[in-house]
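Example record for the data management plan.
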Amino acid sequence: MLRLIGHLYHLEHEWDEAGWTEPAQRAHLRQRDFAPTLSFLKKAAQLLVNRARPSSLLGEACRYLLAQWEPLTAHLRFGQTRLDTNLVENAIRPTKLGAKNWLFIGHPDAGERSAIIYSIVVSCRRHGVDPLAYLRDVLTRLPAMSSKDDLRPLTPGNWQQA
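Corresponding structural encoding:
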């Protein structure tokens, strides 16, 4: 099972090395090249779930895999996603270190608000944008905008300082 999953990562790595990063192209490659491996993985899990004791770790893992099959295969249609969340986890690790200090920061909605701010800051960093300059500029522009305005130029990937 681990070799099958490793094969998926190997394919992704080859595509990264070849520069195949366009989402539509990546989705096509996944649909074409992941399908045989995922089919074999599902068949193996179906066989193992019937052979393993239900309370064993293997039985639980196979049942979980089969229960999550739809989200796993939905990944094939989205070329902009990654196989795992390692990039996100590594990006937010510095803020996670202080999480216990921030458990009770005043309001029940504070956690969600903090997550939004962290996402914006990390996105800015990934696009080489100074988060402070970005937030200052965008927060001064937003009050003059309406819901009919195109907000895409305000995303960190498209932002140009006014």
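Summary line stored alongside the record: Residues 23-51 form the longest helix (29 residues).
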